[in-house]
Amino acid sequence: MKLPTETFFERIRNRLKPEEANRVIRTLKKAAGQHRIDYMAVKEASELLDRARRAARLSIQDYRQWEAHEAVISALQPTRAETGRQLREQARVKASLYLDAMRNYRDLVRLACEYYGGHSNDNRH
């Protein structure tokens, strides 16, 4: 099954209020057209990506550890099931945030590199 892909601007539209999304998209397009994507904004996106990656990894590890523990236990108790549901949801949310941060970072790097005519030396793509 092929997952649908969103463009950078579609992600912005899907996650922000319409007026906020339009403002952000207009500003980014204008900045890219004038070659003014700020290095510090890209750096901040990189740092957000790193934090989101760590949080997603930890949440996924927590969920997998819980899942393995639950496989050993024969009788499921309602509180254990709820804990698992919450951990799974937390892992899903944090992994989703990490993927958004990664896509946004890559798109910002691409926009910034278009001005310099070069390619990023960041090997995370």
Write up what this structure looks like.
The chain is an all-alpha fold and 125 residues long. The chain has one domain. Helices cover 78% and strands 0% of the residues. The protein is built from four helices and no strands. Helix 1 packs antiparallel against helix 2 and helix 3 (39-72) runs antiparallel to helix 4 (78-116). The longest helix is centred in the C-terminal third of the chain and has 39 residues, at 78-116.
Task: Fill in the keyword field for this structure.
mainly alpha; elongated; 125 residues
Give the SSE map:
Layout: H1 8-15, H2 18-33, H3 39-72, H4 78-116
Quick summary:
The chain is an all-alpha fold and 125 residues long.
Annotation, overall tally of beta strands: 0
Shape: elongated
Seen as an oligomer or otherwise, the chain set is single chain
Q: Please identify the structural class as seen in this structure.
A: mainly alpha
**Beta fraction of the residues?**
under 5%
Proportion of residues in helical segments: over 70%
Q: Main sheet, how many strands, which sense, barrel?
A: none
What is the chain-wise order of helices and strands? Answer: HHHH
Give the count of structural domains.
1
Q: Taking Cα atoms only, what radius of gyration do you get, to the nearest Å?
A: 19 Å
**Overall pLDDT score:** 83
Q: Show unreliable segments.
A: none
Enumerate how many helices there are, as a single number. Answer: 4
Distance between the termini: 23 Å
